[in-house]
Amino acid sequence: MAKKFNEIHEVTFYECDINGTMTLPMLLNSVIKTSEAQSEQLQVSTDQLQKLGITWVITQHEMNIHRLPKVGQLIKITTQGTSYNKYFCYREFWVQDKETGEQLAHIFSTFVLMDLTTRKMISVPDDLLVAFESEKIKRIHRGPHFHQPTDGAFHQPYRVRFSDIDSNKHVNNAKYLDWMVDCLDYDKLTQYLPQKVWIKFEKEISYGHTIDSFFSQRLLEEHDQFWTDHEIFVEGNRCASANILWRKRK
Amino acid sequence: MAKKFNEIHEVTFYECDINGTMTLPMLLNSVIKTSEAQSEQLQVSTDQLQKLGITWVITQHEMNIHRLPKVGQLIKITTQGTSYNKYFCYREFWVQDKETGEQLAHIFSTFVLMDLTTRKMISVPDDLLVAFESEKIKRIHRGPHFHQPTDGAFHQPYRVRFSDIDSNKHVNNAKYLDWMVDCLDYDKLTQYLPQKVWIKFEKEISYGHTIDSFFSQRLLEEHDQFWTDHEIFVEGNRCASANILWRKRK
């Protein structure tokens, strides 16, 4: 059984939007912060990996959101490096209300290791994950089937800003979700809540790039729900895809 | 002597930029969070004010930065509502390293009260500030003289995004600094650090606006320092001005 680790996080007003609920990028940022804290505690921090010439790269998140955390709420973020196979490491996050224990979100994330010199994926050294007590498995988690935006989808350009890039000198993954969600209109973003978010990352984006964010909507029979399908391109290359299920606020 | 209040804040990676130091908008956000916590403790929270039909509006910050907080650092943010006169309330913030007590930044801010219906400034009711034990003064703090960008200054447009607006339904003040600083080039932003920041806010900015961010540079005799002068406009109306003194990283 993989080691669990948790942190308490106070949701700040600047992690929330006009709805007073945490934005999706900030929810991702806060859980990643917790996984970094676990890695540090187990002395396998990002800094220590970089000294070995390797770093973590996130390739996919599958988020199930029961209730978005609210401004001022104390949330308990629990994580474990659940399992791994030759190339993929699977990490889970549980977000709960600190007081009541109510489950707010569950996130299943896929990480790979990249060689910092070749920028290529490497196979996972067994000894690296000993401290996490992750289970070694053979199975590869295939994840969801992604829907692409339709032809003629709405699209909008975003110039990568200085504040979008992190200490790895590329755009922080969470930012992609910001560019995706911002394409929806004001009414949708105030009247609907994200319920499921599937996002996969294919290419790094750097300072100075201009990205094109595409999205279209997929209606469901349930009139109070719909999916949005998203893709982000830089110069004709797809950098990320996402599907988000929205439901009407009650 | 006005009541002091403090909070410990852990600087997260997503509050920092490529330099591993806290961004100016996030530094402002974190201190404002502390002032809101004090107001809540003294039962004069923003929510309670809004029930009285009024709200706080920040008109100016004067920041002196000795050393920007770093990712992972625990900082102690101390604040007090120092003094007030008929229309203006002056609040100070001190940012220190939690362990060593080293002074990292001092911020002197001016707040006014706005009537939520008329959107006009109102005079400060004495009884509102009793709990803060702020000193009533006659003097008006004039603040610095602002330099304007020169004719032909560099300018860049920014579309207001959904995530830029806060629960007051307008752009969060701190965001203005993001649009200002982003105009500088990559080399400047990695080789220089902000030392002084003066910013004044003149008009609200809303969702759907496109702002124009102007800036020019003012050289000093000391070759390792320079000023940048900034203004932000919406449809020909100035919404904010700022001057920032930068010094070369050591």
Walk me through what this model shows.
The structure is a homodimer of 250-residue chains. The first copy, chain A, is an alpha+beta fold and 250 residues long. Chain A folds into 2 domains: 5-136, Thiol Ester Dehydrase, Chain A (Roll); 154-248, Hotdog Thioesterase (Thiol Ester Dehydrase, Chain A), CATH 3.10.129.10. The first copy, chain A, contains 4 helices and 12 strands. Chain A has helices at 24-41, 46-51, 173-181, 186-191; strands at residues 5-10, 54-65, 74-84, 89-97, 103-115, 121-122, 135-136, 154-159, 192-201, 210-219, 225-234, 237-248. In chain A, strands 1, 2, 3, 4, 5, 6, 7, 8, 9, 10, 11 and 12 form a 12-stranded mixed sheet that branches. At the A-B interface, helix 1 and helix 3 of A face helix 1 and helix 3 of B. Chains A, B: Belongs to the acyl-ACP thioesterase family. Chains A, B: GO terms for molecular function: acyl carrier activity; fatty acyl-[ACP] hydrolase activity.
Sum up the overall morphology of chain A in one term: globular
Mean pLDDT over the residues of chain A: 94
Kindly state the number of beta strands of chain A: 12
- Could you describe the largest sheet of chain A, including whether it forms a barrel? 12 strands, mixed
Proportion of helical residues of chain A: 10-25%
Oligomer: homodimer
Pair of chains with the largest interface and how many residues each contributes:
A-B, 34 and 33 residues
Write the CATH architecture name of the largest domain in chain A. Roll
| Count of helix runs of chain A | 4
Cα-based radius of gyration of chain A, to the nearest Å: 18 Å
- What structural class is derived from the secondary structure elements of chain A? alpha+beta
What are the segments of chain A in which pLDDT stays under 50 over at least 5 consecutive residues? none
SSE string of chain A, helices as H and strands as E: EHHEEEEEEEHHEEEE
Q: Would you state the CATH class of the largest domain in chain A?
A: Alpha Beta
Strand residue percentage of chain A = 35-45%
According to CATH, the homologous superfamily of the largest domain in chain A is Hotdog Thioesterase
Number of domains of chain A: 2
CATH fold naming of the largest domain in chain A = Thiol Ester Dehydrase, Chain A
- Whole-Å distance between the termini of chain A? 38 Å
Keywords (chains A, B): Fatty acid biosynthesis, Fatty acid metabolism, Hydrolase, Lipid biosynthesis, Lipid metabolism, Transit peptide
InterPro entries (chains A, B): Acyl-ACP_TE_C, Acyl-ACP_thioesterase_NHD, FATA/B, HotDog_dom_sf
GO molecular function, one term (chains A, B): fatty acyl-[ACP] hydrolase activity
Domain Acyl-ACP thioesterase N-terminal hotdog (chains A, B): 3-129
